Amino acid sequence: MVAEHAGVSIPTVSRVLNSPDRVREETKQKVLDVVRTLGFYPNENARRLRTHEVQAIGVIVPHIRDFFFSEIYKGMSEAAEAAGVQIFLHDALQRQERLYEGFPLLKSKGCSGVILVSAYVSRDFETWMSRAGIPVVLALTESETGAIPAFKVDDVQASFDAVAHLITRGHRRIGIISGPDEDPTAGRNRLQGYQSALRHYNIPLDPALIAYGAFRFEHGYEGMSQLLLRQGDEPLTAVYAVSDEMAVGAARCLYDRGIRVPEDVSVVGFDNIRLASLVTPTLTTVAQPFEEIGSEAVVTLLDMIHQNITEQQKGTRYLPHRIVTRESTRFYAYDSS
């Protein structure tokens, strides 16, 4: 069916699904477009799903270079090993088309289910996955409808707590380097938590103290530069970056301008990746339980494959976060004179 719709031979379809590097890019894209449209997957894997024979599961990540990946993968691998299941990894390389390609490619390798890590799941993407005919669990993200089992922290509450950490230490001029606005999980939700904390403590929201980035070091550096340019006559005394990598970039920007952390500006991050405890000064941050998220995602995916999922496992499950206080924040006393 795929070969006919794509106008290629059956062996070509097989090569695209099993050895894509051996196929011309134009042909590969044509076949994968048909695969996505038809929701086609090889028959061998369909047989495994029918008999509940599970040998492997797949994991799709936006980019394997993400600092948190080794920690979440540790939880996944331990749970998979305990269940006697192999894990196949697909790196989307931050490209949307590779994200979609991961599902048929992993299924063609015998994966009976997929864990999608961190990527934003729109309604359209959720609809597409429902047609793909393979169980899916989300980690560090959630679907817009909340219908797909997902494991993450409550980004709104976690951000509220991060900003409250600063406010209760005397800070009032607090900037934020938020995630992309089109990403509601780590973008709008974490920004919402920042705004909620300011409202709760009766601190006026200053739009000039909001910058945006895509979670990388360089975006934190650039975001901090923007905040310093826009801060006005009353300088900011603290900044909250919604990823540790951006927080480290922000701290480097401050260092390059002769601004001390935390003596002049306190810095808070989000994630508690290993880097947070290695930089100088060490980084105060929101800790996510990465290993637990990874293991819970595997256990739930296997339950879905075996059709043993409970009502409690459906939808989004928020795991507890915590504030880890280190050297990058301090108490601030305003001069009342």
Automatic annotation (TrEMBL):
Pfam family, one: LacI
Secretion signal, residue range per the UniProt entry: none
The keyword Endoplasmic reticulum belongs to this UniProt entry's keyword annotation: no
Residues covered by the HTH lacI-type domain: 1-51
GO MF annotation list: DNA-binding transcription factor activity; transcription cis-regulatory region binding
Gene3D superfamilies the UniProt entry points to: 3.40.50.2300, lambda repressor-like DNA-binding domains
Keywords: DNA-binding, Transcription, Transcription regulation
Name of the protein: LacI family transcriptional regulator
